[in-house]
Amino acid sequence: MLAIRLPRILQAKQNLLRGSSLARDVRKGYIAVYVGEEEKKRFVIPLSYLNKPSFQELLSKAEEEFGFDHPMGGLTIPCREDIFLDLTSRFHAS
User: Fold this and answer.
1) 79 burial type by CB count under 10 A (0-12 exposed, 13-18 middle, 19+ buried)
2) What are the Cα distances from residue 37, in Å, to 2, 70, 83?
3) Structure confidence at residue 27 (pLDDT)
4) 74, 58 in Cβ contact below 8 A?
5) What is the pTM for the complete model shown?
6) What torsion, rounded to 10 degrees, do the Cα atoms 72, 78, 83, 84 define?
7) Residues ≥6 apart with Cβ < 8 Å to 5
């Protein structure tokens, strides 16, 4: 299933890099995501996170809620910020 989603995500990243002045500060190997239920906060994360099963669950929720038309213009993840931070902090620890 990742093989199907990854090209779409990479294409979305390319669109972000071409169209957004905010995206210009995203280094190679990273992607900007917007996280939150009500208020969205922008995070820049390593692309390697996309391979983590727990992160893929978040991507599935994002796909269910938004499809590929994300309101922020970038990848939007519909979860609480504290949950996202807890999850990504575990990636740093491993």
Assistant:
1) middle
2) 24, 13, 11
3) 86
4) no
5) 0.67
6) -40
7) 56, 59, 63
What mean pLDDT is reported for the chain?
76
Q: Which residue type does 34 have?
A: Y
- DSSP 8-state code for residue 27: P
Q: Are 68 and 9 in contact (CB under 8 A)?
A: no
Nearest CA to 62 out of 36, 28, 82 is that of 36
Does the pLDDT at position 72 exceed 80?
A: no
Q: What is the model's pLDDT at position 16?
A: 46
Q: Which two tokens stand for residue 36?
A: 């939150």
Residue with tokens 């779409």, as numbered in its chain: 8
Angle at 71 between CA 60 and CA 39, to 5 degrees: 90
